[in-house]
Amino acid sequence: MLLTIRSLTKTFPGTRALDGVDFDLAAGEIHALLGENGAGKSTLIKCLTGAYARDAGKISLDGQTVSPKSTSEAQELGIGTVYQEVNLLANLTVAQNLTFGREPTRFGMVDGRAQRQQAEAMLEGYGLDIDVSRDLSTYSVAVRQIVAIARAVALSGKVLILDEPTASLDSREVETLFGVMRKLRDQGMGMIFVSHFLDQVFSLTDRVTVLRNGRKITTERTADLDRVRLIEHMLGHTLENEVAGHRKADHGLPRSELLRFEDFGRRGHIEPFNLSVGEGEVLGLAGLLGSGRTESAELMFGVASAHSGSAQDKSGAIDLSSPRAAIAAGFGFAPEERKADGIVADLSVRENIALAMQARRGWARPISRSEQTRLAQDYIARLDIRTSGPDQVVGDLSGGNQQKVVLARWLAMNPRFLILDEPTRGIDVGAHAEILRLIDEVTKEGMSILVISSELDELIAVANRVIVVRDRRHVAELTGSEITTETIVRAIAAPEQGEDAA
Amino acid sequence: MTALLRITPQLLTLAALMAMVTLFFPGFLKIEFVDGRLVGPVMDILKRGAPVGLLAVGMTLVIATRGIDLSVGTVVAITGAVTAWAITNGYGLGGALVLALAAGAVAGIWNGCLVAIAGIQPIVATLILMTSGRGIAQLVTEGRILTFSHDGLAFFGSGDLLGIPVPALIWLATAIGVTLLMRRTALGLLVEAVGVNRAASALAGVNATVLLIAVYVASGLCAALAGIIATADIRGADANNAGLWLELDAILAVVIGGNSLLGGRFSIAAALLGALIIQTIDTGILLAGFPSEYNLVIKAALVLVILVLQSPNLAGHWYALRRTFGRQPAATTATAKGAKQ
Q1: Which of A294, A344, A375 to mutate to test the interface with B (most CBs of B within 10 A)?
Q2: Nearest Cα to Cα of residue B80 among B244, B246, B236
Q3: How many CB contacts within 8 angstroms connect chain A with chain B?
Q4: pLDDT for A14-52, tens place per residue?
Q5: ipTM, 2 decimals?
Q6: A127 falls within a domain
Q7: CA-based, 20 to 30 A from A476: which of A115, A423, B111, B234?
Q8: How does pLDDT run across A227-253, given as a tens digit for each residue?
Q9: What is the pTM of this model?
Q10: Which residues form the ABC transporter domain (chain A) (predicted)?
Q11: A186, A272: one domain
Q12: Domain residue spans in chain B?
């Protein structure tokens, strides 16, 4: 075995993040590490990369016991990591990034030509045809991902940890990345692959290890595993009802109109569109990244103000000139960039949930601490937020739980129209299903929801109506049985057909 | 209880400092009742610490929003000049106070708008007023040291109420008032939320722009109070020297108070203890009778020691050290610790 972990244990105040976990990685193997949010995947990785010091247990690499105390020490030992949010410096050139920290020098100065040659040599074999002297920011996330891998491989060369590397890649880019990974596998590299995309796990990996609540549940060969059993391992119970298909029944129901956007648009963001939102309706917004999905949502929530058109409800025009105005009109918005725009990381779960409500009540009418705690406990139970309590700092929660906190903030406001931008991005299967169930639950009570998602399955499962966005224009609207992966993809892809449908 | 725990390091530091000064100057803690007023080095610290204490209150709020206000020292000079100008031009005590506070508020609105609306980085935005403000103060005083004799105004600098110096009462009242305003309303939470993540707070409906301007106005008002006290104390306005470098002491007080320059959680009480620590150092060095040329060096050394002891990094090192050397029997360590205290 290349890497052996024996009874690894790590405790945080209030939680045992890892409890006697065993894990093996062979050379020339891609090993998937799966589990729900808070199962201990990140903690395990952080113990491996030296970000955390383990409390107990043993890590050995090539038969030698190691205890890296920092990421750079882990790199020197041979353990490299590539994260979902690429941690390279986008404002430097590709070559500078690749040679960062060990630039070739001549007479004490950085030797630019040697640097570029070295960078080109490092990228050889990755199938990238890029100019290493250009800024990294000029290339796509996929290219940056591969640059990050090239850097990690050159620095470490034994074990490569890939933490959600595909979360922001499209399917073609994913294939390129997988090609690179397979090649590295053939060269004898051991890779740990963390992903929420089960398809990718099945198509790429050799073995799968499932963690749940800090314990190792199982390690199996991927080929011997079927999908349902894997999900059961991750959730710890059998899947009761598949979310898909549950909503089809009430597609045809007539709905009274809640809101209507007429000719609503903003130059450079989204072309003017007409949209009617029914009471208790789930609207899906599909389209490629950058097609105008998020821009539509931001316009409706007043993050950017509209240049044309108006929004109306039964009693007349609504002011949507700022988020505050939109909130006053009964709107809510859980943004795509959870960390940057959603959570207030240093504050507690309690304060994060109460924040929007407090902002609406005004500073002079504080929500008492006991009220806040009650509110938080209520939503912790209702949304199954994994936290040690209402006073835990939100930044310490896992991604899925942070998302639930943002959802709780809005549900507590009881909005009539809630916009969810990529509500399930980077979230594991369990939380994913819970959030979809939640959407179902609140719309039954009359709330209307707009869901933006890149996962078509998800839209098909929850939406009564799907709006397709392409090139900053709403190009198609699909209802009822029209909503299938095929129709959505066709509307996104084919201009002529899309225009017809619109 | 948690509030007390939060300020424990500052309380311990202050106590240790006071004990140290007492070693050099045994009469340090003596307070006498003379002519209906309390006198003694401690009262002197409470009085002299007023300007930095007041500035630290406003600075704490600004820093909690991830900002910084470099202009407060200059605003002290401007508002001091306005006070003296108003009193010599016959606006009366009330008029002088109102004009001074208004000048402080205007300075705050200027800073706040540059930061919150124009989006200039706080350190640059407030640097503008820091450098230009002394010129404004000189225009008000027409380049002279503007002196006055007005007992009503002088009362704010050197008067006593119930035996306690008025400046001390003003900063205490301001600190308590602002703390209550922050903690009994939701302002404290909203300020912290904006400081940690302005974008997320704005999307949650917090009026971040208005809140940001408000904290700079609060800082300007605190500076105005400090300016009134400074001017009243010397019965004159010195545009060149009033409040000189006080912004740095105020920032230092906030930092000694354990407030992060990255914004978020804040404690006004801890910042005030920071101000008292700085003033105790200043007064203590004088009392201990060191030659005056040593003052700044000794102050710097003490501040360094305090900040190093408070450093969270160091806490980690202590922990590691204790673990390394903690293999000895627990009883020994306990007695060793007990002996130290």
Answers
A1: A344
A2: B236
A3: 76
A4: 678 899 999 999 999 999 998 876 788 888 999 998 888
A5: 0.85
A6: no
A7: A423
A8: 778 877 877 655 444 444 445 445 556
A9: 0.76
A10: 3-238, 253-496
A11: no
A12: 2-310, 313-341
